[in-house]
Design a protein that fits this description.
- It is a single chain.
- By secondary structure, the chain is α+β, with helices and mostly antiparallel strands.
- The protein is built from 7 helices and 11 strands.
- Strands 6-8-9-11-10 form a 5-stranded mixed β-sheet.
- The N terminus is likely disordered.
Amino acid sequence: MPFSGPFSSPFSRRLYLRLWLAVVAAVVVLTLAVGVAWHTAAEHLAAERLAAEPNGAPAQPPGRALLLLDAQGNAVLAGLATRVPTPPGEKLALRIEGEDGRAYRLELAPRQDHTPGHAPPVAAFWLRPPFGFVWMLGIVALAVALGMFPILRRLLQRLEVLQRSMKHFGDGDLAARAPVQGRDEVADLSRQFNAAAARIEALVQSHKSLLANASHELRSPLTRIRMGLELMAGEQPAPAFRAEILRNIAELDQLVDEILLASRLDAREADVGTFERVDLVGLAAEECARVGAELHTEAAALEVEGVAKLLRRALRNLLENARRYSQGEITVSMQRQGAMAELRVSDRGPGVPEDLRERIFEPFYRLPGASERAGGVGLGLALVRSIARRHHGSVHCEANPGGGACFVLRLPLPAH
């Protein structure tokens, strides 16, 4: 079991030190291995040369023809020259066997590259092979080790910052984010963490808002039901009281249904139904007939990929919203806009102020002056936007040229 007591080494707790030490160890091992291999190869070569010498005597090198000429170009001496082995660094000696059978010896002094009268410089033993090669590798290893430390330290510092950000986020600080530096894998990891953290924060805030508003919305019909029961005082309810209680119960049922649907749409992994080809024209015709709206379209069929019950719910919410506020006819128009199917629901109501056309899609938001008894709990348009986004579409509100509001739902058409 690894030691983890109070006296454990800090190297075991710092990833950048462990990585740096791993690099240093690899360079040291490489240096030693190359030095040993070079030294072994040198000894092996020396042994082969010694083995090639008969009876311990130096092997006789092959002879070469030699011709000595005078100034007039006449041959003075011709024969075979053979090098006589001498210690390294000493004079060069040649043995010449002339054509007349006589033997000669030619000696050449070693080359003098230094100032006359001074002995040639002799390198220190640690600079001569094999030590010089090992020293060179040691210097390279030291340079690599020193150069790798700041690089690894900078890399691991960014990981430590990301680790601290994740710890703060895990401790409950949902606003914690990691700084994004560079364009490498660490920066990409930071971006992914920030995106996931933003998504989680938005979901938590949405659920908090949903819970707070749902508790308020549930309390209103329950209060009205309780008051109605107290007013009856155990007597047979009047038809008006009975209708009011039934209306409040229906409102509660609708609220619970919409809250559950909103929760499933917010959870991306939740199963909301099977995606299939849905004919928007046929679906719109059925919903328009239910509320008495007019349908205008030039397409006989307009199919999209989606969940039929969700698309029906989105169109029904738009039509219910239009019927709640419209003071005239309600029209639904459909057309193809490039790769998108566009559905417009127009009414003749008071319209929506321009600065509130985005807020009306927030959960439980009602326009100023809207009464709870007008119907709805403020989740209808929020559900329409959630359904549109689940189908990779969009919805927005704009002014109706003839007065009122126009809600535009855009859904992608399937690729053929």
